[in-house]
Amino acid sequence: MNAPTACNEQQWKIVQIDDKDIIQDLYQRGSASFLQNANQCFLACYNKRSDNREWLDHIQSGAAFITTFQLLAHTMGVGSCWIGHLPNKSELQRMFDIHPVYEPVALVTYGFYRNKVKTLPRKHDVSRIIMKNRFVSDHLVFDLSRSTLFRTIGRYIYYKIPAVFRRKLRHMTVPYEKKFYYETFD
Ligand SMILES: Cc1cc2nc3c(=O)[nH]c(=O)nc-3n(C[C@H](O)[C@H](O)[C@H](O)COP(=O)(O)O)c2cc1C
Domain residues for 69? Predict the structure, then answer.
């Protein structure tokens, strides 16, 4: 409840989900497949009536809530995972009867750690991240093979398919889920 929000408006709404059928349904509709193993999660929503649409204030405020939750939960031995791999927002809006003034920001699974927590190595050295006074682009190298166009179109079509068919296709789509990238490029 002490997470920062734009103009200190504190306009969060959190839908806590502990019904396994609902969690399973979220998976069947095309959410991240590891959701199948989750016992509980929450959907963070935020009031989208903001005058600062340019900076998506409501999304930033919702994201700050999630990060604050994750850090605090960690201190209590509770691990969590932020999930953005979800059906379209309008579909979640209908599934959970979310009031039209509120927008779903992301889903978060959580539970007690089973094992000791390991910190994974970071991908970049901090000296490559922080710049002084201006954005320095000269040394950036991009991986040109990483095209998102195909995935963007595929994703758009997949989530437009009615849920009843998407459920039937679900087992075939698992291999196409976005995996972690380990590239060393910028
Ligand atoms: C906006 C956002 C969306 C994310 N979506 C997913 C997701 O759909 N599935 C998933 O497994 N993890 C997702 N994550 C979690 C990241 O993979 C995770 O936070 C990151 O790899 C750091 O892991 P670490 O805390 O173990 O270092 C998401 C994180 C963010 C910030």
Answer: 6-113+134-176
